[in-house]
Amino acid sequence: MGIRLLLSIVVPMIAAAYPIGQVVAVRYEQTAPGIFSNGSVPVSGRSVGTAFSAHSGVFSLEYFNGAKWVDFKAVCIDANEFLFGGTMLYYVQTLPANTTVQPVAPHAPPVFGPGNAARVENLRKLYTVGWTDAIADTGPGITTQEQTKSAAFQWAAWNVVRDTDLTVTNSGNDATNPVRITGSTTAQLNVRNQANAYLSAMNSLNPATVLSNLLIWTPVKAIKDPTGAVIGYERVAGQELVNPVPEPGFLALLGAGIAAVIFTKRRASVQG
Questions:
Q1: What is the pLDDT of residue 128?
Q2: Distance CA 49, CA 178 (A)
Q3: Contact in structure between 59 and 35 (CB atoms under 8 Å)
Q4: For the ranges 129-133, 150-154, 160-164, 263-267, which has the lowest average pLDDT?
Q5: To 10 degrees, what angle do helices 186-201 and 144-162 make?
Q6: Is the pTM higher than 0.90?
Q7: 178 with 158: CB under 8 angstroms?
Q8: How far from 7 is each of 245, 247, 253, 266, CA to CA, in Å?
Q9: Any residues with CB less than 8 A from the CB of 178 and at least 6 apart, and which?
Q10: Structural domain boundaries of the chain?
Q11: Who contacts 94 (Cβ-Cβ below 8 Å, separation ≥6)?
């Protein structure tokens, strides 16, 4: 198979790995590691006036691409919403730089509405500095450090989206510090310190390295006509999810790697 033909098959497959602009069924990953990709940490805190205690971490999920279930990882962006149980429909769209997400339905605006470009930019920075670290598998098994980083990234994301600064505190009030960790155990202190390490790293980030796009997954339900045919979708209560889009540089690197493999095989064939 020629290089051009192989790349024309493989690269579009990876570029289309996420169903952008589509409505897909999403569920928790059905095999290990389960709901959280690198484990989780039970954390007590407050978010926009509401106290809660829950396991925090990067979610391990699957979406159905029409033929099979495909794994992906994401965090939620609203600590006050619960993630679904079972299977739920999600609309997938890009969250590019300095723009706002368009609502799925006019009466159901998403978290990122007009005037939130700065939050979108900070979220892109956070994913640039922390995502790879937060989902890294250092094994064997799930270590305490992996659990801490997984939970910390989730709290850092909540801070970027809902708070007024780039610091996760353990004190303050709902007006000035709406997202904060109130628990005082060693595990929760470690989560707060790691979350602040991710947020602090954003300050020294080279703008040229910031991820160009993220994906936002919005929960929806089907709108049907009297015959039962689906005629559209509308926003429903539930967690919006965010994860990164594969960067063009990654696809180019993958393509170069494939080309190198093909070249090596051809050279070996000629020499043999």
A1: 96
A2: 7
A3: yes
A4: 263-267
A5: 60
A6: no
A7: no
A8: 19, 16, 12, 16
A9: 46, 47, 48, 49, 162, 163, 164
A10: 1-17+252-272, 20-245
A11: 20, 213, 214, 215, 216, 245
